[in-house]
Amino acid sequence: MKLSCTKGNLCQGLSITSHIGTKNVNLPILNNVLLKADQGGLKLISTNLEIALTCSIRGKLEQAGEYTVPSKLFYEFVNLLPDERVDMDLHDDGLFISCAKAKTTIKGIAPSEFPLIPPVEGQVKFTISVSDLKKALAQTLFATALNEARPELTGVYMKFNDNKLTMAATDSYRLAEVKIKASSQEGEHDVIVPQRTLSELNRIFSVFKDDVEASEFVTIELANNQIVFKYASVELISRTIEGIYPDYRQIIPQKQETKIVVDRKDLQQAIKSVSLFSKLGLFDIKMTANPEGKLTLFAQDATRGKNDVSIECDVSGKENTIALNYRYILDGLNAIMSEKIEIRLIDGANPFVLMPHEDQKDEFIYIVMPIRQ
Fold it and tell me: Which residue from 327, 331, 322 is spatially nearest to 283, judged by alpha carbons?
């Protein structure tokens, strides 16, 4: 194997592929990135057996070949090189790398030990705007469950139907759902995608954020128990989560007794102030809306004291009080970009509903279960 490429391209490729390697004592090859040089340039491939990442970069090929080197070590070394051409040449004692005055040899492992990653050809394909998907990920990923007692809740539910993608996440205490456009084939398809896979996809988007050649769209392909994301020069293959996602739509309230429209930043500030006096471990605050146009937040702790803050808002319906985990509310507010937000309440025993107060308010909905008094 012998080829040359720019430091910038190599660094970008390694920043994408060097991230998923794990300290696997039984399979040290998983800590390595596979370098595959052929007529198409250089392919960087990494996997943790759950996710596989392939990134193609341009390069001048002199001799085809492949080799694996420790991914983090290689990335950190390349990152310190000057912004010039990087030459790579495979010798008997390892991969020889030279760039300007910098020269080194990195020892690796034979590529024959690297896990085989067969190409996945999805039977169903979808195309989605990257900006829409990034926004949808920001509005759902935080609500997935961390506890693996119910594996299906550790992923994001994705349902493709009628040129629309619905994404939902819940940890059984709160629920986030968002709908975005997706050009697709006919038919309805659903899948549960691991949270880590989508977080990795989000990170890949951020690596390309300043790249003028980056595509505005990402292609999603579904195959047997696998999902493939193709974006720019990157292909991400992941296993999906088996199981049936809970029918979350049944917990979304279809009516309301009180509707509140309030400035998002005012509410965030008020919650942060009141939360200083919430009970440790419970993180509880009380929220009371009255028809006179006041939203009052209150928290009290036996050892630290109490605090209440009132903010102006538009209230329609009856007076209502609900107790909530303030951290869940802040998560929801951080996921909304609009200046005004809308809150819907039935009573203190039913779910709290939060959404943007805009024309397309039904595209994102966030629900939090109340703290029982």
Answer: 327
